[in-house]
Amino acid sequence: MHAVAEWFATVTQGKIPRELAVMLVSMIPLLELRGGMIVARILDLEYWKSVVFCVIGNIIPIPFILLFIKQIFKWMKKFKGLGKIAEFFEKKAMKKSDKFKDGEFVALILFVGIPLPGTGAWMGSLIAALLEMDIKKAVIAELIGLVMAITIMSILTYALPGVFTFF
């Protein structure tokens, strides 16, 4: 992830505002807030701006995924190539959904909040939508998870910035 974030920072540097670069990375599945904080640090963005733009970027896709992903997947399945992509994400989400059967609210908080590859708001929203979790409950759990994730990533990127040189 560090390599992708570093590449994105290099490609966008000087072409778009740093804040926009951080927000865009935070919107990308798999990179999300984790990648956004790394890009923010590489671009030497002030800490408070990093937090604001990472969180905004990570929040933007949540309602769209929760409300429309089932319809989008249904539409995608009408096309051969897109159908395979939809099925891939459905299978991936359902595979991870076993963790949600008991205590779905807490499980969603932890899933979004612990910044590991394959976790985050995108996949959390996808799982919540496919499991037909109450939208209000899902949004609250994801927001709490985002606070947890931004806290962890703040420590790793700003308090201990050398951590990512080892990965």
Structural class: mainly alpha
Distance between the termini: 9 Å
Radius of gyration: 16 Å
What are the low-pLDDT stretches, counting only 5+ consecutive residues below 50?
Answer: none
Q: Regarding quaternary structure, how should these chains be classified? A: single chain
Number of strands: 0
**How much of the sequence is in beta strands?**
under 5%
Q: How would a crystallographer describe the biggest sheet?
A: none
* Global geometry: globular
Helix content: over 70%
- Overall mean confidence score, pLDDT: 87
Count of helical regions? 9
Order of helices and strands: HHHHHHHHH
The structural domain count equals: 2
Write a structural description.
By secondary structure, this protein is mainly α. The chain folds into 2 domains: 2-59 and 152-166, no CATH class; 61-149, no CATH class. Helices cover 74% and strands 0% of the residues. It is built from 9 helices and no strands. The chain has helices at residues 2-12, 18-27, 32-42, 47-59, 61-76, 80-96, 104-113, 121-130, 135-159.
